[in-house]
Amino acid sequence: MEDFPEVESCVECSAKTLHNISEMFYYAQKAVLHPTSPLYIMEEQDLTPACKKSLVRIFKICDIDGDNLLNDYELNLFQRRCFNTPLQPQILDEVKVVIQKNIPDGIFHDAVTLKGFLFLHCLFIQRGRNETTWAVLRRFGYNEQLEMCKDYLRPTLKIPPGSSTELSHRGQQFLTALFERYDKDGDGALSPEEHKMIFSTCPSAPWSYSTDIRKSCPTNDQGWVTLHGWMCRLTLMTLIDVLKTLEYLAYLGFNV
Ligand SMILES: [Ca+2]
Ligand SMILES: [Ca+2]
């Protein structure tokens, strides 16, 4: 196996004595459904850059209060979103102990840091539980190449003739909360830096700050976009290009 790093697992089996047959199928299926190589570099014992990048984005989306830590409440929401079950308090404590033991700065104020989150996924893979990390990545829209799936970004939407499109109440709530999370200084407006950060989970911003949103939407005295301006621009985008809104909601981590 050392000579062939592309071989993920090796199991001795026999069709004659039926020795290890079910194990053989289990590992073969696993190699196809939850491959290691897109996630992990064996020689370096570390996650691949693409996997890290995806997990960093997921971490940011799950960090609801924006303090760069995942507290118990945020971890529970994450767990529910990915696995549809709540995290047992005892298991949560055990996970934190394991992280703390291995990397001391993986836990801060009883919450998981980004380092701790990445370490946890490294550990899953090292323990042969690739399916856990894959489940997380797939839930957040990633395909086998660790790119966002097209149908996740642009789901089919039939708009009857004569109808227009607008943000739902849930969509408005999500985008308002997002604004509040990234308005770090709490002045009720997005500075250019805050505007840049709000789209840090997206490939790029959907519009230019200086020549588009700032010029066309309500701003404060400093000329920075207010919550009202932010919602106006999104309402307009939803009206004229709803697929673009859907795409951005996916990048921003709206839970569907
Ligand atoms: Ca947090
Ligand atoms: Ca601000």
TrEMBL record:
Keywords of this entry: Calcium, GTP-binding, Hydrolase, Membrane, Metal-binding, Mitochondrion, Mitochondrion outer membrane, Nucleotide-binding, Repeat, Transmembrane, Transmembrane helix
Species in which this protein is naturally found: Bactrocera latifrons
InterPro entries, A to Z: EF-hand-dom_pair, EF_Hand_1_Ca_BS, EF_hand_assoc_1, EF_hand_assoc_2, EF_hand_dom, Miro-EF-hand_domain
SMART domains (UniProt xref): EFh (SM00054)
Ranges for domain EF-hand: 170-205
Lineage top rank: taxon: Eukaryota
Location of the protein in the cell: Mitochondrion outer membrane
Listed GO MF terms: calcium ion binding; GTP binding; hydrolase activity
Membrane topology: Single-pass type IV membrane protein
Protein name, per record: Mitochondrial Rho GTPase
Pfam families given in the database record: EF_assoc_1, EF_assoc_2
Main localization (coarse): mitochondrion
Cellular compartments per GO CC: mitochondrial outer membrane
Family in the record: Belongs to the mitochondrial Rho GTPase family.
